[in-house]
Design goal:
mainly alpha, 5 helices, elongated
């Protein structure tokens, strides 16, 4: 009768969480970048003019394009550094959620008007 072996085999590869943590943190950084760029584009004429990549949409085209590039760049760098590692996923998730919360706050006009 075969019984399941709950102990990990010494030949089994170790499971890592670096790739998932990289994706989670990059999502937080990307959302925060989107909010900061939108806020900066609304408050500064220089930033607003530099973010116009496609005239019919105005600075929104630059805000979203730049935020996506920041997200992808962050994800690529973190994935490259953490792909074979086990990292503190609780701390990384907390930082990503904090960045997401700050990004959400920056989307409300009363908060943006404080700057």
């Amino acid at each position: 009768m075969n019984t399941p072996n709950n102990a990990a085999s010494p030949n089994a590869p170790a499971l890592t969480n670096g790739s998932g943590a990289a994706a989670i943190l990059a999502a937080g950084v990307g959302s925060f970048a989107l909010a900061v760029l939108a806020c900066a584009g609304g408050k500064s004429a220089t930033v607003k003019n530099s973010l116009v990549f496609y005239k019919p949409t105005g600075p929104l085209s630059g805000v979203t394009t730049a935020a996506i590039l920041i997200w992808l760049f962050t994800w690529a760098i973190l994935e490259w550094r953490w792909r074979n590692r086990t990292v503190a996923s609780g701390r990384i998730s907390a930082v990503a959620l904090a960045l997401l919360g700050l990004a959400l706050l920056l989307t409300f006009p009363p908060v943006v008007d404080l700057f």
